[in-house]
Write a structure and sequence with these properties.
two-stranded antiparallel ribbon; globular; mainly alpha; 6 strands; 9 helices; about 250 residues
Length: about 250
């Protein structure tokens, strides 16, 4: 597709551009929602900026761990990409640490993050489509890459799994934002996002086709194993929360 675009005589990677646009849109959304709920703009911006650092470190770290088997091809190859789950948990952990250190209340930060993350992701995944990374499985209907950043993705009709994931993330954002506006699921929207995305990602991985880049163990990709772990952790969390809630009523 279009791995690079030319602006003012300079080549700009389309993925980086779309990720930046996604971050700006999600950031403006988060700031607006926080201010509506009585949070000073500086506080939400502070949390977001620290979270971005965690996203970058976490995304590269997990990518590197998945690709350690390619160490013979150089460090740039091993650590040169990002894995969404690594960035997600890196950003959430960093943000949570800042919130705890500054003694900010969990609400509304966590609930706003639950909406902002899929909003960002829906835009950034378009960058994946334009770049040709995260390419889909061979398909009767789809797109043919000729300039993909991954050479062996070229010349084959591939299912646009990136656009499907973008649309699903946008729909998830819509649902979560509706709950946020309605004051429903207060302080549980982040858990709802994580559980919903884990289910979506587990299924989407079967449509990716880029097995060589993701690491496959016992027939499942790294992200599928992470999705299973997230779903199980949330199940335990809700069971414990339910038991405690019932105990408080009795």
């Amino acid at each position: 597709m279009y791995p690079l675009i030319h602006i003012a005589g300079k080549e700009i990677p389309t993925y980086a551009l779309m990720a930046l646009i996604g971050a700006l849109v999600a950031g403006m959304f988060a700031e607006h929602q926080a201010v509506k709920r009585g949070v000073h703009p500086f506080y939400i911006i502070e949390v977001m900026l620290y979270s971005v650092i965690g996203v970058v470190i976490g995304g590269h770290l997990l990518y590197g761990l998945v690709n350690l088997r390619h160490l013979d091809q150089g460090l740039a190859y091993v650590w040169g990409g990002q894995v969404f789950y690594g960035g997600l948990f890196g950003g959430l952990l960093t943000g949570a640490l800042v919130i705890k250190k500054k003694k900010y209340p969990r609400y509304p930060y966590y609930d706003i993050a639950a909406c902002a993350i899929p909003l960002f992701h829906s835009i950034a995944r378009i960058g994946c489509f334009l770049t040709g990374c995260c390419y889909g499985i061979p398909s009767a209907v789809g797109f043919v890459y000729t300039e993909s950043a991954v050479p062996y993705a070229n010349g084959v009709v591939r299912f646009p799994v990136q656009l499907l994931e973008s649309a699903l993330n946008l729909a998830l954002f819509g649902v979560l934002y509706g709950l946020l506006r309605g004051g429903k699921g207060k302080d549980h929207l982040l858990s709802l996002y994580l559980g919903s995305y884990a289910l979506l990602r587990f299924g989407l991985e079967f449509l990716r086709g880029d097995d060589v880049l993701r690491g496959i163990w016992w027939g499942l990709s790294t992200s599928q194993w992470v999705s299973i772990s997230v779903a199980l952790a949330l199940l335990v969390y809700f069971i414990v929360w339910r038991v405690r809630a019932q105990s408080g009523k009795s």
